[in-house]
């Protein structure tokens, strides 16, 4: 880590150039990106280990990234965010270029607003905030419990409290909903994010969204999902974009949800891999399989809970386990939020803790309603951002 900061310091003094911001285009690959910018493929891709190579596949269209050039237009540094916590850092080093994965520094603000319905929650949230993401999150939260089409009336009210990340002065990544409330015909409906990272309604019943079955029955989770993790032995940052279930070789693996098999073959470090496409942009992946169940092939429809293959240790794996991934529109998400153990009803101590959290949130919601809290647009950022310090300075 010290090396990086030294490097940043050097650049600070030698090049006071600012940073150009770009958007990752649809269909662009990491190799294409390197070629386009005349960056060396060997050092920055072919010489990398398998894990780092796999990380480069995580770049998705629409992502904003930064390039720092000196006054001769030579690339000094590139920052490519892989998710909201980890980024690829390419930097000039001894006349060539080097690759590393480093954490993203961002700040989080808790934001909130209330709005009165004139048309629909979707329309009014968009009108108030200009954010499609917030509208989507709100609608999805009540999708299985309320019927907005039939039951909403003009003058009904809603409140959202959520965390928003900012990076280099810009809104960054999906907001995390903490509370959503809608008052329909004088009755209030809530959703709360609890300390266990799951969503509950006002009665302390878990809110069912897209629920997945556990892909290996009764298996222990041996490694959790993480967008970034420091490997103390290799001394580098990695991501684990799935969950590992430890199980004996040959243990049946079941489809976590109904859908269509879109891949069933070997794939690099994944080993024997099955990918299943589900509704609403969800996809699940099952890796390191010993073998596929007979009759499971690309194009086949499977039901939730149906056996599709068997636990093994093919590909890059240190022992028999299932590596399970959940993706939404290509983005890896934490399966824990959606994997069904049993739908949870909070009891005892857990319920007591939830009720305290709920009480605090309810007070906030009441305050926002009373104050008619408006969505605060941050003033458009016109300052400069510096890659070397990962800091921004406002102009003037
Ligand atoms: Zn894994």
UniProtKB/TrEMBL annotation:
**Cofactors (names):** Zn(2+)
- Give the GO biological process terms: proteolysis
Please report the stretch or stretches of sequence annotated as the M23ase beta-sheet core domain. 239-335
Do you know which InterPro entries this protein is assigned to? Cell_wall_metabolism_enzyme, Csd3_N, Dup_hybrid_motif, M23ase_b-sheet_dom
Q: Which residues form the Csd3 N-terminal domain?
A: 22-104
A GO molecular function held by the record: metal ion binding
Q: One Pfam family of this protein, by short name?
A: Peptidase_M23
Indicate whether Zinc appears among the record's keywords. Answer: yes
Keywords recorded for this protein, A-Z: Hydrolase, Metal-binding, Metalloprotease, Protease, Zinc
Question: Zinc as a keyword?
Answer: yes
Protein name (record): Peptidoglycan DD-metalloendopeptidase family protein
Species of origin reads Sulfurimonas aquatica
